[in-house]
Amino acid sequence: MNRKKICIFGLGYIGLPTAAMFATHGHQIIGVDVKEEILSALNQGKITINEPYLDILVQAAVSSGNLIGKKEPENADVFIIAVPTPITMEKKADLSYVISSTQAIVPYLKEGNVVILESTSPPGTVENVIAPILSKSGLTIGEQIFIAHSPERVLPGKILIELVENNRIVGGINKKSAEIVSDLYKTFVRGEIFLTDAMTAEMCKLMENTFRDVNIALANELAMICEKSGVNAWEVIALCNKHPRVNIHQPGPGVGGHCIAVDPWFIIEKFYEDSKLIRDAREINNDMPQHVFETIKDILKDIKGKKAVTILGMTYKPDVDDIRESPIVHLIELIKKDPQYDFKIVDSQAKKYSYPVHDLESAVKESDLLLLGVNHKEFEEIDFDLIYKLMRNRNIFDTRNFVDRNHVEKIGFKYYLLGN
User: Fold this and answer.
1) How far is 116 from 204, CA to CA, in rounded Å?
2) Which of 69, 165, 268, 277 could join 42 in a cystine, given CB atoms 3.0 to 4.6 angstroms apart?
3) Among residues 7, 226, 259, 317, which one is catalytic?
4) pLDDT at 153
5) Dihedral sign computed on CA atoms, order 76, 149, 195, 127
6) Cβ(115)–Cβ(81) below 8 Å
7) pTM score
8) Residue in 7, 205, 307, 344 annotated catalytic
9) Catalytic residue list contains 259
């Protein structure tokens, strides 16, 4: 494909890697973002998020002159929208960033332009939100300007690998739009690219994450059942998964991140009466931080006065810096509201949060409970002999089946496991 000028809105976890990938494959990229710190870092060849090898790719892209950050868009061949689509307090999709980005494109549109929505969105967003705004340009949708939805399907920590290797869906407003956008992504995508219509692509993205949310809810429900029946849920799951057609996910303190914890709500919003199973799964996973807190209260019920809890990990998954929708953050809010509890957080990954993060030794001093919330690699080498000496009451509550139970019980800890 010929060198294109591509304007990308949103330089976050998806927009920035996508911009760098296109730039290092020869395209001219204008990265648009409202945050000055992101633009300043980018134009110096630096990044503000934690993703393996992204700093190297961005530095190469900026040094080549193919990637520059700006606050305003400009004329381009292709416009890609990769802005956030957060969830409101009412569990509705907030499309304000998508709408404002689309409106910002209109003055720059010319015949032959391509507009791609990468942001995860409720079914019908391309057809009923983006297309009507772009039609105000006077250009005919699907003939003079081409529109498609091509959702990201990548895992934080492996974004650069999966951008290239994963299969991709392109849903066009019409067949020609899908074909044009598919050709563009073939610049760097080695996986298969499947063409469909825009609404099908939107539904596929949502259902991929909804499948995982429902499966995790099943595991969490099993964990709560096992706690009451005297059975170890982790052993049940391990043995069930020996069956060639069974793949039960892992239980935990809840579900976080901007995908699995959010995407099912976009389906519920549009199809409330028909999404009973999806709603039940969301409620189970949303309630897990409360279940964890109730377990904490039960473990520490005999301790008089203020109870001190040390929380290991607060990001939404291991070894990333992202705290969006983290169930441990929700748990922290519950603990904070109860005057009987103090807490300290240990997490070198989390860099942006309203509460201070402590080193392990100072956090466990005079603590009554060590809660393993996120199984970061940094917690694999904990010196439990030292921790035992520093804690006031030696309780460990493991929500991830991560701590070596035999080892810590031999030292003298009381060990509690979610789902056991």
Assistant:
1) 16
2) 69
3) 259
4) 85
5) negative
6) yes
7) 0.90
8) 205
9) yes
pLDDT for position 252: 97
What is the predicted pLDDT for the residue at 352? 67
pLDDT digits (tens, 9 = 90+) for 386-419: 999 999 999 999 999 999 999 999 999 999 999 9
List of domains in the chain: 5-200 (3.40.50.720), 263-417 (3.40.50.720)
Question: CB–CB of 42/11 below 8 Å?
Answer: yes
Q: How far is CA 204 from CA 148, 180, 278, in A?
A: 14, 20, 15
**Identity of the amino acid at 205:** K
**What pLDDT is recorded for position 137?**
96
Consecutive 10-residue runs of the chain (420 residues): their mean pLDDT? 92 94 96 95 91 93 96 96 93 96 97 97 96 97 97 87 95 98 96 97 96 98 96 97 97 92 95 97 97 98 95 92 91 96 92 82 96 95 95 97 97 97
